[in-house]
Amino acid sequence: MDLTHLDEQNKPKMVDVSDKENTTRIAVASGMIEVTQEAYDAVIANTAKKGPVLQTAVIAAIQGAKQTSTLIPMCHPLMLTSVKTDIEELPELPGFKLTVTAKLTGQTGVEMEALTGVSTGLLTIYDMLKAIDKGMVIRNIQLENKSGGKSGDFTRV
Fold it and tell me: By CB distance 3.0 to 4.6 Å, which of 22, 61, 109, 127 could disulfide with 121?
């Protein structure tokens, strides 16, 4: 099997996408963070000492998606045309589910951007609440669906 990120001498390389067709590409990723009731209540009441947790997490998720190529070595720098976020409150957990949708028209997909956005947003929630709860658990960071490109569409079932 040929590995796409290694050259003929087994040296790492970034894949050449210059011959690929520009298509609209969309990826949706999600993840969850489980927190204590005290931490959850602080977020909902907006009383966390570091400021507005969910609003900051949204900004971090967008920034994380935009910075993916500086964090993941083989990712191409991309001109994202849209990064959307949604945070669902999960009082029964307690915790939060973050969903990030990344979009562009280009020659390579945006799955890593959506996944990095989710990771960064959830890590920001952790950072802002760690004084209250050091036992938070981040989990289920996953690609939900993607469309566009040569490999076709994917939807998690």
Answer: 61
**Residue 7 to residue 16: CA distance in whole angstroms:** 11
The pLDDT of residue 3: 65
Structure tokens at 16: 């050449």
Bond preceding residue 52 cis, omega within 30 of 0: no
Give yes or no for a contact between 88 and 97, defined as CB atoms under 8 angstroms apart.
Answer: yes
Residue 127 among the catalytic residues? yes
User: Which position among 2, 7, 86, 127 bears the catalytic label?
Assistant: 127
**Helices assigned H by DSSP within 3-142:** 37-45, 53-66, 68-71, 111-129
SS3 145: strand
Read off the tokens for 20: 């690929």
Q: Which tens digits make up the pLDDT trace of 76-124? A: 999 999 999 999 999 999 999 999 999 999 999 999 999 999 999 999 9
How many CB atoms are located within 10 Å of the residue 156 CB? 11
Which residues are paired to 98 by β-bridges? 31, 87
What gap in Å lies between CA 68 and CA 132, rounded to an integer?
Answer: 29
Alpha-carbon gap, residue 28 to 95, rounded angstroms: 20
